[in-house]
Each structure stands twice: as C-alpha cells, then as structure tokens.
Design brief:
By secondary structure, the protein is α/β, with parallel strands linked by helices. It folds into two domains: 15-234 and 407-426, Rossmann fold (3-Layer(aba) Sandwich), CATH 3.40.50; 238-405, Glycogen Phosphorylase B (Rossmann fold), CATH 3.40.50.2000. It contains 15 helices and 13 strands. It has a seven-stranded parallel beta sheet, with helices on both faces. Strands 10-9-8-11-12-13 form a six-stranded parallel beta sheet, with helices on both faces. Strand 9, helix 10 (298-301) and strand 10 (307-311) form a beta-alpha-beta unit. Helix 9 (270-279) packs across helix 13 (375-387) and helix 12 (339-346) crosses helix 14. The chain is globular, with a radius of gyration of 23 Å.
Length: 435
C-alpha cells in the first residue's frame, strides 16, 4: 500500500538506503517504502521468517534475529548475511584486537559489499534521466558515497552523532571523571580523516538535532550542507492503554520512581545521576538503572539504598520498566538524538533531559529540560517534581501526544523538502560515469 506525501519532490528517482544494523528500527527505509520512494535497502543482515540464520545459537544468533522488519517484507532488500556470519565467527576465534580496529574493518567490509552490489546490479542506472538518491550512514559511507557520486547519484550522509567535535567535547567530560573511570581509547586519526571525506562527498548531510548540527559546524563542516531532520518514530499501539497514576504525595511506601534506561555509561550522565541519588538519600525517591554497564559503574551504586542497579535486560521486557516508572531521566552529555526519550513519552512518562540531544521534551508540558548536566541540577529538578505530583500527572497526559511530531507524516516531508532545497541550492547536475 502506497501513501501520499504532501511535498514537492525534487527531480530525483528513488532512494537506496545503505545501513549496518537495524538503525532506528528501520524507520527511514520503511517510511520511504510506504510512499513508493525506496528503490532498495542494502544492509548487513536480513533473516526473514523461516531463514536458517534465525537458528544460529549464542550472541551471533541473537543479533541476527533482530535484523528484520515486517514492514519491509515486500521491499527490495539486499543483504550480506552469510558473509557477516562468517566474519563474526572469524572474529570470535581471533585473539583480542582493539575496538577501533574491529569497528573500522567492519565498516570497510560493508562498504566493499555495497559497492560491489551497486556495480554488478546497475542499481544506479537513471530512471528517465533522473538520478537516484543514495543515503549511507556516517563512518561506513566513504566508498559508497564516492561510487554513487561518480555514478551520478545524489549523495546523502546520515550523520549519527556530532562527529569529531563530539569526541573533543567528550574528552573533557571523561577527563573530569578520570579518577572514577579511565577514559576509553579514542578514535585514531584515520577514522576522522575518513569521516571528513564522507562529509566532502555528501551533497547533503542529515543530522537529528540542533546539538549535532552545532558540533558539525564546530568541526568546520559546511553550513549549507547540513539539515536538521528529527528521527522517525513509529508509536507502539499497546502503550496507549496505560493509565498512569500518581499519589497525592510521595512517601517511603510509595516513592517517586525515577527510571534511567539505556547505556549506563559516563556519556549518558550516569555519574551525575548517582551523585543526585546520593544527595537524595532519605527522601521518598528511588532510582532504577536499566541497561548495559559498559563503563563498570555499577560498583558505585551498590551501597546506595535508594538505587536499584538492574543492568542489561532483554528488549522484550523493557516496557515493564517504562510502564512502572514515574519519570524518565536522560541527562546525556552528548547524543545525536536519544530515541529513549520518545519511547518514554510514548509510554506516558514525563522526561527530564539535557539540552545536548534531540529536542523531544516540551519544557514544563511533557517534562523538564535541565539547565546543565550536574548532580545538583538533577537534584533540584527532582525535588520540585517530588513536591508536585500533580505536575507529573499533567505531563504524563501530554507526553504521548508529543510522539506525533515524529511520525512518518510529520518527519518524511521535512527530509524530502530539505533534500529538494539542497538540490536546488547546489544546482546538482552530475553526469553518469562511463562504464
């Protein structure tokens, strides 16, 4: 079934989306497919129902099984699942290597597969003289965009974060917490060299937040190439049945339940949240930390009676935590967007978020935006909510409505209109490479 999109389309044919993994749960290719604009999704793994790859055991099998979307069951999907499985098994058998080596090898492998497919399939052959749009995501895009550009396609870079300036910003954050946890190994220079080449090869760079846009500008990326397009979000129909109840006053028997869900690391503001928990000891408030403890910070939560450190949980039960919490805490230092904000709002949860991510929260209406990411700022915010349960109740009623600003009908026209402006402004006329 095809849907109409109320936007003047540029003089282009259809989109080829190249992505590793189930990025944003395949929201963009699914939306493009629904309006008849998807030529192909090219991805690393795609095991439809009945595929033997779904029977793989262990972590590899678990990852593979999540790489499918029923909304694309009748779309053209090109995948390299067998090659990915061989690589994963080979990597597991090798001696330990650095994270960046593994990541960059994976990205290079994916690009090689995509370019080979595009070359052999003639997928970029123009339709009635109109160029296709090729979108690839940052850090796994350089070869793809170079080939597509030579073939006469319009090239789009999906920038997943703030790029090189984000790393510089986070270096200062990690240095601040060096006594608590050593900083990670930072990306090698060639990683950022590749990224800058991607930016040069892109006709159009999509970021998901004003924060990411500012970081790209700080890194010297051309302003006219960058467009802010929020992430696409498909609402969960079963979430609307939640009737969230708040007491007239919180107490030791019914504390304010604060949920922190996602990666439990320094980037996401876990240390500042733990500082807040320490300062709020003795008050009727409980913190739930749910997610992967990649920085080993759980040791700091053990002695706190008002903290439940849950750790990683299966995706299938995440809804239990959203459903039973009173407020969602997202004090990230830097995020390209922060999809968990939308998930929380969809569940009718007020959100306390930082400014350094996608603009989801309507301050005072569906949650609170922190003035800064510090323990005292979080304490001040939570104390105000603790004293006014009625405010939380009002925010909870409004929260699901906020998600409508991020559905296909709202976001896809922004993307297409931004592309049309970029094409017109650049006057892109590119000849197809002779082959």
């Amino acid at each position: 079934m095809r849907e109409n999109v109320a936007v003047e389309l540029p003089d282009v044919s259809r989109w080829i989306v190249c992505q590793i993994g189930a990025r944003e749960h395949y929201a963009l290719p699914r939306a493009l497919h629904r309006v008849g604009l998807l030529r192909a999704l090219v991805t690393d793994a795609w095991p439809p129902p009945g595929s033997a790859f779904r029977l793989l055991p262990g972590r590899i099998g678990e990852r593979i099984r999540g790489r499918y979307d029923e909304g694309l069951s009748d779309a053209r999907v090109v995948h390299f699942t067998s090659g990915l499985v061989r690589r994963e098994l080979a990597n597991a058998a090798r001696s330990r290597r650095g994270r960046w080596d593994i990541l960059m090898e994976r990205n290079a492998w994916f690009q090689e597969q995509v370019v080979r497919h595009l070359l052999q399939s003639a997928s970029l052959k123009r339709n009635g003289g109109r160029p296709h749009v090729v979108l690839a995501y940052s850090y796994a895009a350089r070869s793809i965009l170079a080939f597509a550009r030579d073939a006469g396609a319009i090239t789009v870079l999906g920038q997943i974060d703030g790029g090189a300036a984000d790393e510089q910003y986070m270096k200062a954050i990690w240095a601040r917490h060096a006594a608590t946890s050593p900083p990670p190994a930072f990306a090698p220079a060639r990683y950022w060299d590749n990224w800058r080449a991607e930016c040069r090869l892109a006709d159009f760079i999509v970021v998901n937040s004003l924060w990411s846009r500012q970081l790209l500008l700080d890194a010297g990326i051309e302003k006219q190439k960058i467009a802010v397009v929020p992430v696409l979000y498909q609402r969960q129909e079963d979430n609307g049945a939640i009737d969230r109840q708040y007491p007239e006053a919180f107490s030791s028997s019914r504390p304010l339940r604060v949920l922190f869900l996602g990666s439990l690391n320094i980037r996401k503001g876990v240390l500042e949240a733990l500082v807040a928990a320490e300062q709020l000891r003795g008050e009727p408030i409980e913190f739930w930390f749910v997610g992967d403890d990649s920085d080993g910070l759980g040791r700091m939560a053990t002695p706190m009676p008002n903290v439940r450190w849950i750790g990683a949980v299966p995706r299938s039960i995440v809804g239990n935590w959203y459903g039973n919490a009173d407020v969602f805490l997202f004090p990230t230092h830097s995020d390209g967007f922060g999809m968990t904000q939308l998930e929380a709002q969809d569940w009718g949860l007020p959100v306390v978020a930082s400014k350094h991510c996608g603009h989801v929260v309507e301050h005072g209406r569906t949650g609170v935006i922190l003035t800064e990411v510090t323990g005292p700022a979080i304490v001040d915010c939570l104390r105000r909510l603790l004293a006014r349960p009625q405010d939380l109740a009002a925010m909870a009623r409004e929260a699901p409505n906020r998600c409508r600003r991020f559905d296909q009908s709202a976001v896809l026209p922004i993307l297409l209109e931004s592309l049309a402006r970029a094409v017109r402004a650049a006057g892109i006329i590119r000849k197809v490479r002779n082959s």
